[in-house]
Amino acid sequence: MPNPSRRARKPLPPLKPRRAPNLVLRRRLLMSGLSLAFVVLTSGVFYRQVIQTEFLQREGEARYLRDAVIPARRGMITDRNGEPLAVSTPVETVWAEPRKLIDHLDKIPAIAQALGMDAAFLRDRIESNRDKGFLYVKRRVTFEEARAVREAIARHKITGLDFESEYRRFYPGAEVFAHVIGFTNIEDRGQEGIELAYDRVLKAEPGLQRVIRDGRKRTVQQVEQVSPPHPGRDLALTLDRRLQYLAYRELKAAVTEHKAKGGSLVVLDAATGEVLAMVNQPSFNPNSDRSGGSERRRNRTVTDVMEPGSTLKPFVVAAALEKQVISPASRFSTAPYSIGRNVVRDVHNYGTLDVTGIITKSSNVGSVKIAQKMSYGDLWSLYDRLGFGHPTGVGFPGESRGLLRHHSTWRPFEHATHSFGYGLSVTPLQLAQAYLVLASDGVKRPVTLFKRDPLMQAAAAPEAVRILSQDTTRRLRAMMETVVSEQGTAKQAIIAGYRAAGKTGTAKKSAGKAGYSSNRYQSVFAGFVPARQPRFVMVVMIDEPGAGAYYGGVVAAPIFQKVMEGALRLFNVPPDDPEPSMMLAQHLQGTAP
Q1: How confident is the model over 31-45, as a mean pLDDT?
Q2: 224 and 252 inside one domain
Q3: Angle between helices 119-128 and 108-115 (to 10 degrees)
Q4: Enzyme catalytic residues
Q5: Is the dihedral of CA 441, 444, 449, 451 positive or negative?
Q6: Where is this region: Disordered (predicted)?
Q7: Backbone angles phi, psi at 483, to 5 degrees
Q8: Phi–psi pair at 114, nearest 5 degrees
Q9: What is the DSSP letter of 1?
Q10: Considering the entire predicted model, what is its pTM?
């Protein structure tokens, strides 16, 4: 029998390995972390999808939805017949995103060459604004420049450079209309002339639209219009483009011929007071060359003053006729005439002249003796009512009011000098307005540059007022016809087929405390045509002619003849009576119908 001690022993179960405590801990932490991350992620998704939905949509839109400006056209300026004098044309502006373009500095020379700019200057601008998202590179570029920039962008694969649309002001009349129209700056705001005076009427209000842009800032879709653009209002001037060109050509030729410092010319419609032409020399081109300062840019017709000289003598006669202290038949000796320590004399000894002869020969002595038959206040009152010393109200920026001192400050010799155009100063436009009274049978009308009032809220223009009687002005016009004759001082102003009337003026320029210059003059002619029923009034002034001749009848009168001859043809004004000499004699005798 088997030995119990040798009974087979049961094998012991294998021992299970004991887990390390740190491994268990790691697993628990991992599970906890995953659970927490799941909770956080789920919470974040819920928060963003449910709670922050509107906020995130706004933020997303802000990254591709933009407000873009809709350019608007500035108002157009035209002449009386609708011919454009100032227009706005669409152009492109090049802009950059410096923070992107900074990575393409090696391409700057190509961009600068396309735009005609200095490469070093453009590089400095980009580097100094490297953190900005917008920078104008060049505004209102030409078509050729825009094409060259696009080619450079495509060829060199440049990013951070783009275009936007703007309007550029263009002046078809260039230097011919420059002083009246003026010009605008880079922001399309008026700087001179009508552009400045009526900027609030002409300026446009840009609109606003919401657009979608891609990552390169390119517009890919227009979403909605926020506000519509409002173009500026158009203005129609009284100027006639054809007459303006003619006047400018003749004035420029005369200034060149006589080697003058400058000149001014203005033509008015005798029936309405509308300015038909207004030109100056020297001039400038508002489309390109705006240099030269005020010497070239100012409108001398309304800003510069002159002593009118003998062109005032008809008004002295008119005042005396109105006061009935003289008659057309009154006669005066024109020998040298002493007033205190001063002596008044004429260029030639004309002997004894009647009133018409004083006008015809432009006698200083005769004019002084007529003035002395009136009080200081009588002469001053007429000058004041004619508008001397007051702005014309034409609405032009920088208009001068001239100078007319009150008669209470006059001394005897100043009373005398005021009778032949010294001691006071006027603008060419003021003198033209005064001659408009003579052409309008004694009625003073406001001068204007507009066919209608462009500002609906502006006060109505002042009514026409009577300054002189009809009989006086008609007699005076007949006397002034003799000036534009073979016997007068302005025979070079004669217009074939028409009876013209006017008055020459030659005034020495002031030399300050030294008195008057002996070799610096202003040559003036003022007149109207046809004489019996005037259609046009003109004043022309040549400043400091330097080629020898300086008398108004020699320097200024020929310009009057050429411009008026063209004006009569352009406006189809029929010729005067075929026998002007007979009608002139009847007017001088007071028997004309």
Answers
A1: 80
A2: no
A3: 120
A4: 310
A5: negative
A6: 280-303
A7: -65, -40
A8: -65, -30
A9: -
A10: 0.79
